[in-house]
Specification:
Blueprint (H helix, E strand, L loop, with lengths): L11 H11 L17 H16 L3 E4 L5 E5 L9 E5 L13 H17 L7 E5 L13 H6 L5 H5 L9 H8 L14 E7 L4 H5 L3 E7 L1 E10 L3 E2 L11 H18 L5 E3 L3 E3 L6 E2 L2 E10 L2 H22 L2 E10 L2 E2 L2 H14 L3 E6 L4 H5 L5 E6 L15 H19 L4
Parallel strand pairs: 3-4, 3-5, 5-16, 6-15
Antiparallel strand pairs: 1-2, 2-4, 6-14, 6-16, 7-12, 7-13, 8-11, 9-12, 10-12
Helix pairs in contact: 1-3, 1-12, 3-12, 8-9, 10-12
Bound molecules: glyoxylic acid (GLV) and manganese (II) ion (2 copies).
One manganese (II) ion binds next to loops.
């Protein structure tokens, strides 16, 4: 007698092994991963992923921005496939799970369906989106944004990293500038599994987060022009110190986010002194600001307050400060039918769960603007992510992958 479909489980050990095998590409001494998008390490993990997809019988296509799509045929090939996946790039000091879990769980879903001999009605497509992290090239999630038409392909290809290398050059170097035009791999919907990257699920002892919304994002590039002068002989009242100015801006960002809290956050994550020297008052600094909220009105307030404070600080300190908004992503409200599908699969499998808002940005947030999308979260240790210490348990990863699989099966239907 064949087992009922509801008993189907992914292979937890195989998923866990895949996560640890790919963590070798860019492994750091502290147990994390450094795999910047389109780097040599990214090429290694992409080659591994392509081989694994082909071994699982998938047809792999790469688009003009390097996003990878592994197609599993369904009974009705007239239907656009159901997308599932995430990303394989990491932060400079990232962990083993951010993005990797969702991409390799998608592969594990396909492997499980293959082993069980299950054909779906609608085809499936497992996705590895280029540059989700945004730490080498801005903005984050650029390939999925181009996929939905928020940027042109040529605009993204011309974006440069800090060393002046363009996305086009980086893609050529690693051999992942694909033939397929961006957006031409049609998807009927998209489901992404991810670690929560925050503390809520762990604190509440819940296994699954049914993600119903995501924070909007404001990214700024800032520049401060003060005046370089001698650290010993320039009296304090005469200084136009770019770094002291930045210090005030950092605290202003913190204060503004707190003022609009609890549903707002603000961070200065990068600051580069132009020509640092211990006995020169800094004259030039480049910095970044990242502000987020799930509420569009709060995002407007964050922007207004930040600009007002920066203007006031610059005038008082007699320095020039420019603040350019380089990316604005509206808050995400995931598709109600897909949220319900994730919730139903979670309940069917008997996992403890709650609805949750994503603090981080994800490719699913971009895709949701054009196609129905949803996300599944699992807890991560101490809520820590974007850190080499990032960790999650094998059983939570497996639970998330099971929810992903049963959500996709319910959406795709099983061919009879
Ligand atoms: C991506 O990781 C982001 O939320 O910035
Ligand atoms: Mn991620
Ligand atoms: Mn990330």
């Amino acid at each position: 007698m064949t087992k009922p479909l509801s008993n189907l489980q992914i292979d937890s050990a195989r998923l866990w092994d895949a996560i640890h095998e790919t963590a070798k590409f860019g492994a750091t001494p502290k147990g994390g991963v450094r795999r910047l998008t389109l780097s040599a390490e990214d090429r290694q993990v992409r080659d591994w992923f392509r081989r694994a997809c082909e071994e699982a019988g998938l047809e792999v296509h790469v688009d003009a921005l390097g996003s990878m799509f592994g197609l599993r045929r369904g009974r009705d090939m007239s239907k656009p496939p159901i997308g599932l996946g995430s990303h394989l790039d990491t932060q400079p000091t990232g962990g083993k799970f951010d993005g990797v879990l969702g991409t390799l769980a998608a592969l594990e879903v396909v492997r499980t369906l293959n082993d069980a001999g299950i054909e779906t009605e609608t085809p499936l497509c497992i996705c590895n989106w280029t540059n989700e992290e945004g730490s080498r090239f801005a903005p984050a999630m650029m390939a999925s944004a181009a996929y939905v038409g928020d940027f042109t392909t040529s605009d993204i290809l011309s974006r440069k990293d800090a060393g002046g290398v363009t996305v086009a050059e980086a893609l050529e170097t690693i051999g992942y500038r694909g033939e397929m035009p961006v957006g031409s791999q049609k998807l009927s919907c998209f489901v992404e599994l991810h670690i929560e990257q925050g503390p809520i699920l762990e604190a509440e002892g819940k296994t699954i987060g049914v993600v119903d919304s995501g924070q909007g994002v404001l990214w700024y590039d800032g520049k401060i022009i003060g005046f370089e002068s001698h650290a010993g002989s320039t009296p304090m009242p005469l200084r136009r110190d770019a770094l002291a100015t930045l210090s005030e801006i950092v605290l202003a960002v913190e204060g503004i986010a707190k003022k609009h809290g609890p549903n707002a956050v603000g961070t200065v994550g990068e600051a580069v002194i132009g020509k640092p020297s211990r006995n020169v008052i800094p004259g030039e600094i480049a910095f970044t600001v990242d502000c987020r909220s799930a509420d569009a009105a709060i995002m407007d307030a964050l922007d207004k307050d930040l600009r007002a404070r920066v203007t006031e600080i610059a005038a008082r300190r007699k320095v020039e400060v420019t603040l350019e908004l380089v990316w604005r992503k509206a808050p995400t409200h995931f598709n109600p039918k897909l949220i319900e599908a994730v919730e139903n699969a979670t309940k069917m499998l008997g996992y403890s769960h709650r609805r949750i808002t994503s603090g981080a940005g994800h490719d699913a947030c971009n895709l949701n603007t054009k196609i129905p999308a949803a996300m599944v979260f699992v807890p991560c240790k101490d809520g820590v992510s974007h850190n080499e210490l990032e960790d999650a348990t094998q059983s939570d990863c497996a639970a998330g992958a099971n929810v992903l699989m049963h959500t996709v099966l319910a959406l795709a239907g099983v061919a009879s």
